[in-house]
Amino acid sequence: MPELGTLRLPDRVHFGYDAREQLPEIVRVYGRRVLAVVDPFLTGTPYLAAAVGGLEAAGVQVRVYSDVTPELPVDTLDAAGAVAREYGPDVIVAIGGGSALDAAKLIALLAAYGGPLNSYYGENLVPGPVVPIVALPTTAGTGSEVTPVAVVSDPDRELKVGISSPFLVPAAAIVDPELTLGSPATVTAYSGIDALVHAVESYTARAFDPGWAAPLPVFTGRNALIEPIALQAARHLGPWLEVAVASPGDRRARSEVARGSLLGGIAFGSTGTHLCHALQYPIGALTKTPHGLGTGLMLPYVLDAVRPAVPDRVAALGEALGAPDGPIARVVEINRAIGVPATLAEIGLGRDQLPRIADLALGAQRLLAIAPIEPTREALLDILERAHDGALTV
C-alpha cells in the first residue's frame, strides 16, 4: 500500500513558556463573548484571575463555568450545555486537565446543536462546526487540546463512551508548560505515561485503505504524515518524564514533557490508539484506577505482543527512547521510576476476572481495528494473563 496521511489540527497551535499571553489575541478572532470552562481547582488561583483579567482588558465579556465533575457524568454535561445555550458564547475557553477540555468540547457541541448528548455517541455524528474552542491544558498527557474525541461516563453503559468527530478539534491550542508546574507527582506520572502510549500506539497503528471517495473514519490508522511526530513525542518523553516526576519544579523537564504530550496528541488525533486503550477501559472500570495508570501498565505487554508484527517500528521506538537494544525494558524502567504498577495483580485484579475484561474490550471495535495484530479474544486474553503475571518475553 502506498504511504497515505491525514492531518486534523487546530487552526493555531502555540507552545512555550508564557504562550498563554496570546489568549486575548486568539479569542478576539472568534468573538467578544466567552464561556470559560475551567477545572474547579483553578478557581481563585492567580492563573485564572490573570486569564480572565487579560480577556476583560481586551474588551471580552467572560462567564466562568467551573462545575466540571471528574469522569464527566453525562447528565452534568447536558446541564452544562443548557447553561451554554442560554448564555450564547461566541467562543469557549477551556482551561484545565483532560476532563475540563473534554467537557468544553461537549459543551461547545451542545451549545451549537442541543442535546441529549447520547445522540452523538460514536463517530462522525456531530452535524457540523461547534462553538469555537480555545484550549489551554494544565496537565501534560491527554492531548485533548488537539484531538477530535471526548469521553464521558454514562450510567446506562458499563464502560466510558466516546464522541468522536473532526468538528470537536479545538480551534486553537495554547500549551504553556508554566500551567503544568503545579501538577502533583501522580498526575504528572500517569498523564505523562499516557502521552507516551499515544505516541507508541500511533506509530504502531495498522495501515488502512481509506477509500478516499467515501466519508473517512475519524481515526485513519497508520499515517505517513504523523510518523515523525510520534517518534519525536517519544524522544521528548523518554528521557524527561522521570525527571518531571522526581523534580516537579524542573522547568526544562516540564517543557519537554508538555511538548511530548502535545506531539503525542497530534499523532493519535489522526491515527487513533489501540490495545492499551481498549484494555484499559474495562480495567479502569473494574479497579477505579486512573486512565494513565492502566494504559501505562499495559504498554510493555502490548509492545511485547505486537513486536513480531511490527519489529522495525518497535525498534525505531527504542531508538527514540534511547534504548535501541531494549525498548520494552526501557518502558518497564520508566514505569518503575514513576510509580506505575508492574502487573494487574498489583491493582487488585484476579486471574478469574481476565476473561470478562477481554470480553468487554472486544466491544471497543474502533480501537481494536487500529491494532497491528488480529485482536482476537485469545490474543487479548494472552496479553492480560501476561500483564497479570508480569511475564514478558524479552
From TrEMBL:
Residues 188-387 form the Fe-containing alcohol dehydrogenase-like C-terminal domain. The keyword DNA-binding does not apply. Belongs to the iron-containing alcohol dehydrogenase family. SUPFAM superfamilies: Dehydroquinate synthase-like (SSF56796). PANTHER family: ALCOHOL DEHYDROGENASE (PTHR11496), ALCOHOL DEHYDROGENASE 4 (PTHR11496:SF102). InterPro entries: ADH_Fe/GldA, ADH_Fe_C, ADH_Fe_CS, Alcohol_dehydrogenase_Fe. Keywords: NAD, Oxidoreductase. This is Iron-containing alcohol dehydrogenase. PROSITE patterns: ADH_IRON_1 (PS00913). Transmembrane segments: none annotated. Coiled coil: none annotated. The lineage of its organism: Bacteria, Bacillati, Actinomycetota, Actinomycetes, Cryptosporangiales. The keyword Mitochondrion does not apply. Residues 10-177 form the Alcohol dehydrogenase iron-type/glycerol dehydrogenase GldA domain. It comes from Cryptosporangium japonicum. It holds the Pfam family ADH_Fe_C.
